[in-house]
Amino acid sequence: MDPSSQLPWKPWHHVVTLREDLRTGELALNQFAADLYEVLMQSGKRPLYEDPHPFFALTYPTHNLRELAKDVALRLAGQNDKAVQQLELTYGGGKTHTLITLRHLFHDPVHLPTLPAVDEFVQHIGQTPPHARVVALCFDKLDLERGLEVRAPNGQTRRLKQPWSLLAYQLAGDAGLAQMRDDGQAEERTSAPAESVISPLLESVTQQGLSILVLIDEVMMYARGRYSQDPKGWDALIDFFQGLTQAIVKTPRCAVIASLLASDPDKNDTLGRRLQGQLYDIYRRQSESAVEPVVKEDAAEVLRRRFFTPESIRDRNAFKPHVIAALKGIQVFDDSAKGKKVENDFVQSYPFHPDLTEVFYTKWVGLDRFQKTRGVLRTFALALRDAEHWDDSPLVGPSVFLNTPAQTDLAAATRELCIYAENEDDSGHKHEWKGLLIGELECARRWQDQTIGLKHRELEQAVVATFLHSQPIGRTAKLKELTRLIGPTRPDKINLEKGLRGWAEDSHWLDDQHTDTATDATLPKEWRLGNRPNLKHMHDQAEKDIVTDVVKDRLEKEIGKLKTWFQVPPGLGVRLHLQPKQPSDIEDDGAFHFAILGPNTASEASDPSPDAVRFLTEKTGPNTPRAYPNAIVLVVPSRDGLRAVEARIKDYLAWEKVDADLGKLEATVDPARKNQLQTKLQAAKQAVPGLLRQAYCIGVTLAAHQQPVAFRLTVSGDPLFDAVKAHAEARIMDATLDVDALLPSGPYHLWHPGDTRQRVKVLVNAFAERPALPKMLRTQYLYDTLADGCVNGAFVLLLTRPDRSVRAWWRTRPDDAVMTDKDLELVLPEAATLVELDSVLLTPGRLPGLWTSDVLTVRQLYDYFQGGHSIQVDKGGGYEEPLFIPKTERATVDAAIQSAVVAGTLWLVNPPSSLWAEPIPTGVLTEAATLRLPPPAINVLELLPAALPDAWVNGQATVAAIAQALSAKNSLPLPWKTVCDAINGALQANYLEATGTWPCEIAAAAQVTLREKMAAPLKITPTVDYGQKPAYHTQIAIAEIELATHEVQDLADVIPELTTLQATHAFPMRLFVRIECGDGTKELSEDLRTQVNAMLEKVQKSWQLKK
Predict the structure, then answer these.
(1) Which is it for strands 907-910 and 930-932: parallel, antiparallel or unpaired?
(2) Is 47 contained in some domain?
(3) Is residue 793 a contact partner of residue 827, using CB atoms and an 8 Å limit?
(4) How many angstroms separate the CA atoms of 428 and 326, rounded?
(5) Average pLDDT rounded to a whole number, residues 115-134
(6) Which of 70, 494, 600, 804 has the most crowded CB, counting CB atoms within 10 A?
(7) What is the DSSP string of 228-268?
(8) Does 866 reside within a domain?
């Protein structure tokens, strides 16, 4: 079954039929190049042009061509003045075809064939064309040395050299030659004839009843050569044309039609254009505006008549359903492709896509060597002949320029187009379009094959369409122009855009000035295939030259640049190692080590590389295993991530090379290209650190079962170590342990059965040695845990000094230096004997179960430390467990009691002794003695007679009496210091005064007498003048009292309340403060007074101590 029968449209070649001579190859491509001279001479070589019948069968009478024929006919009939006409055509634009048309119309009008084209000309002229003697000056055939053979009216031929000779001979034979000479000889004259010579010659012909039509073709072909041979010969030619045009204008029924351009583009150089300008000046003086017989709107009909059978193109209405089918695909990409006008345009152009012919007639005509209509005819003849066998498009579009689907070479038509483009002048640079297109088509096919919904070679069509739109160099195709050309085969829009985007990304020759403006979600707005490789192509070529060692060197440098990211936050005590070369570069010392290994250790999750494992298990080699393998965590790159980084580094290095290469061409590189390169260079450079971070995502360490384990990390912008620490498989502990975890009953099995003591250093190092234990981030955490255990009584710490003396800690915290001492031992309380006991522990609340009341007997204390004693302590949640109290000898306990009493933290009572803040005499510290908290301070008012009458006799009392009375009042002998402090306070407050030596020891207390002190009344500056208002003083309420220093603070605390009360009730209030320094027996030194005054000035500058 024909695959095309499954399509929702008919391929163009199922609607219109190629001419058999084109299909079989009988129509030679050189037949598209018309030759006026052969027609003139009727040589029989080109019957297609020489015979009017086949010629008019293929000729399309365009509007402008019919107008030209009408103007010429009327001139030859003597009905208008348009004697001189100039054809305005580019190379291959149909100028010679136009001249041949005029020759056939007026040479023998009576015998013109009966054909539609001839009828159109005759009807447009409005009469039978007049018979004329047609003369042709075919300058492309005129040789400067040998001249050109031409035919006289009588059929004879003669070879002549001068253009005016050719004219005269064709008009009147030898008589014409003789008429232009003074001597009447039928020979050539060397000088150009003037108008006065040419006009009689023309009249001699018109007098015979004939009109004269002079056709001039390819003037510049001859003019260039004549000028090069002899510049004066060029002047003669100019004179000839001047005289000819003047004579033609003056002579009725004469016309000249001139085509000045040369079919050889090489003649259109600077000299050619100057000479051409001089010729134009001559013809413009005599002619109307230039005529362009064939315009782009005529292209489709010209092509149809030349390529397809008349029967298949006769009914244009039959094209409409096929046009509608094609537009249905185009309208998906272009909303403007709707409406009757668009439909009519496509019908007029069918089967050719109008946008395709538009490209040739608006862009390719700008190529020096592309010969417009002739070039289009040749190109499409090649394309249609081949594409008919496989093209399934509804219109003749860019697909016809593709080769057979199985072929990777270029189609013949496309190769010819490449030749035109490659020979385009561009500052001496030749463009290798053939190889370029082969590569681009291959890239398009790759994306075509992997993109669904593209079944009609749409991406290959896009390459061809872009190539066509990119001519001449510098032109571009808008995105809509591409999709309109591709659209007729109805590709899926999303998949087409995906494929185009892929081609744009991989293309080596698409201009990246346009493709770089696109994003992942958009396509480039403009497309251009350049004559120079794009930056991507240069990059890909540079990338091939980059060796692996260079990539590895750059990779190591890039890893070093991530030092900040690899850095461990300060304060953790972790030692960082960046890319160590061998295991011995990482110390085996029990400290926590964090290593970033090099690329050679790349691993994957659950698959650590052997090179990485060596760093965990070896110290210096396979025979020296690492002692502390649990104190190391490694991070290595993943294999996939490393490949991605290496690829990106290679990419970056390639861009650097491109940058260097372009730097050598500084003068020829445009700024936009430099900016593109810098953008790509920076993007590649900036991508490396991010990819490198993503690559370093594999943590490697020893698992609890002592086997290496690799695990994937979740990396971010935060320090890498944070991700490692947070991963469960790293088993990093960043906190102190529970004290119970270090006990023999704990989960870590740190104690051998029956052991009651071990060195602290051994226990701490166990966490670095044994993979089954957590990895302690900081060994300080272990020391802190042990110290905490010592403080709460779970452990006893013993340190044997070099002199064999021993220090012990229990329920107290040793300093850091002690904790890290290598000789420090950890002993379980039930197996320990304390050789020293901190006296602070004896105070209430420090030891559980020791103080059951306010009084503790020394015997109870002895029992508490007798050994083998434990108490139940609450562990929370209603759970209790025993706490063992280490054994302590009585002497050690006594020393602790002695220290506590002397330090004033405990009060010892063993009647009649009462001791506090003083040494305990020998013999007083017995089992019957009791310990209490220090006695409270005695208020000085309690020493006055009113409060202590039993001690006072006749207004005086001895210190001994005061002490006895106070002890009796408290039912307990008071410490001598407590009594002394109370008396000193009363003396300082001026409540009492003493006679005798004070202070004194308790033995001399009976010799010191105390009396109440009668102080003078306090003088207060009156608030108002008593003399004026004697009653005022009685209206003031006064509160006076002596305050202890701590009570002044209490007063400050209630001041806000007093001021609030004053504000509420609006009464005046003044504060008077009096400070006395000294006891009245010794004057205060000047130095002390200065110091006190400095302090008082901080309150108020005028406040000073005065004598």
Answers:
(1) antiparallel
(2) yes
(3) no
(4) 42
(5) 94
(6) 70
(7) HH-HHHHHHHHHHHHHHHHHHHHSTTEEEEE----SSGGG-
(8) yes
